[in-house]
Amino acid sequence: MASNIVILTGAGVSAESGVPTFRGPDGLWEGHRVEDVATPQAFRRDPVLVQRFYDARRAALSSVQPNAAHKALARLDAEWPGELLLVTQNVDDLHDRAGSKRLLHMHGELNSAWCTACDRRTPCTGPLLENPACPACTLSGHLRPDIVWFGEMPYHMEAIEDALLGCDLFISIGTSGNVYPAAGFIDLARHAGARCLELNLDPSMTSNRFHESRLGPAGTLVPALVDELLG
Ligand code: APR
Ligand code: ZN
């Protein structure tokens, strides 16, 4: 009987596409203080700085492509006969563009805007700095990045926890295990009795909680794992 798989990805799965990670040597947080660009307080204090930070990351999406890891995960999504859920911490659209369907963005998406006037989310591919009108309520000056900032509740947590408590295999790819609740998913999976596998370039903060850790680039390890799983 095919097992139920939950996969968690972090910035490391997009690194080989040229998307900077957060805590690496050239990491995004190296250039900015989190509290200056990734909190609701920062947005209230300096909306121009925050909009400019996310406008730049959104614009950069058009020059990056899904890599072999994204494509292998999309193949697994299409061919796996059991239940499968891919939960990503990433706000890029590379899993979407690779073709993954059973996918949840727990930290939001660069290609979505959230209107604080009407509380609706709408697709967004351009800059928000110029205060475009909300496509839903037509008011201007109320669109913020649809990104879960520090101190805000990640999206889809109930569905994610349900999937973790019912899975037989939990795979974590390209995340440092620094940020909760994602870093705690391993504990839910172990509680469910799942086999827990980590694929990462370096040991993470939670490596010791996995049954197996494979160290190396996602672009190499993930296609090999998908071949193993699909036989
Ligand atoms: N292949 C596999 N893993 C890689 C690769 C690669 N090519 N390159 C880097 N990594 C690993 C690093 O070893 C590191 O452990 O990816 C991880 C990236 O860690 P972070 O930069 O901390 O990113 P992430 O774990 O996704 O951060 C989680 O923190 O800042 C918040 O909201 C932000 O979603 C983000 C969350
Ligand atoms: Zn609106």
Features:
Rossmann fold, binds zinc ion, cytoplasm, 2 domains, NAD, 9 strands, SIR2/SIRT2 'Small Domain', 32% helix, protein-malonyllysine demalonylase activity, 231 residues, zinc ion binding, alpha/beta, binds adenosine-5-diphosphoribose, three-stranded antiparallel sheet
Description:
This protein is an alpha/beta fold and 231 residues long. The chain folds into 2 domains: 1-19 and 66-107 and 154-231, Rossmann fold, CATH 3.40.50.1220; 21-63 and 110-147, 2-Layer Sandwich (SIR2/SIRT2 'Small Domain'). It has helices at 28-31, 34-37, 40-45, 47-60, 68-79, 94-98, 157-165, 185-191, 218-230, and strands at 5-9, 84-88, 103-105, 108-115, 121-123, 143-147, 169-173, 195-200, 212-215. Helix 5 packs parallel to helix 9. The two termini are 14 Å apart. The mean pLDDT is 95. The structure holds adenosine-5-diphosphoribose (APR) and zinc ion (ZN). InterPro entries: DHS-like_NAD/FAD-binding_dom, NAD-dep_sirtuin_deacylases, Sirtuin, Sirtuin_cat_small_dom_sf, Sirtuin_class_III, Ssirtuin_cat_dom.
Summarize the structure.
This protein has nine helices and nine strands.
Structural class, by secondary structure, is alpha/beta
Give the beta-strand count.
Answer: 9
pLDDT averaged residue by residue: 95
What sequence of helices (H) and strands (E) makes up the elements? EHHHHHEHEEEEHEHEEH
Rough outline: globular
The largest β sheet comes out as:
6 strands, parallel
Radius of gyration, in angstroms, nearest whole number = 18 Å
Name given to the CATH architecture of the largest domain: 3-Layer(aba) Sandwich
C-alpha end-to-end distance:
14 Å
Low-pLDDT residue spans:
none
Total discrete domains = 2
Helix content: 25-40%
**Annotated CATH topology of the largest domain:** Rossmann fold
The distinct bound ligands, ions and cofactors come out as:
adenosine-5-diphosphoribose, zinc ion
**Would you identify the CATH H-level superfamily of the largest domain?**
TPP-binding domain
| Spatial strand sequence of the major β-sheet | 3-2-1-7-8-9
- CATH C-level of the largest domain: Alpha Beta
Strand content: 15-25%
Number of helices: 9
InterPro entries: DHS-like_NAD/FAD-binding_dom (IPR029035), NAD-dep_sirtuin_deacylases (IPR050134), Sirtuin (IPR003000), Sirtuin_cat_small_dom_sf (IPR026591), Sirtuin_class_III (IPR027546), Ssirtuin_cat_dom (IPR026590)
EC number: 2.3.1.286
GO molecular function: histone deacetylase activity, NAD-dependent; NAD+ binding; protein-malonyllysine demalonylase activity; protein-succinyllysine desuccinylase activity; zinc ion binding
Cofactor: Zn(2+)
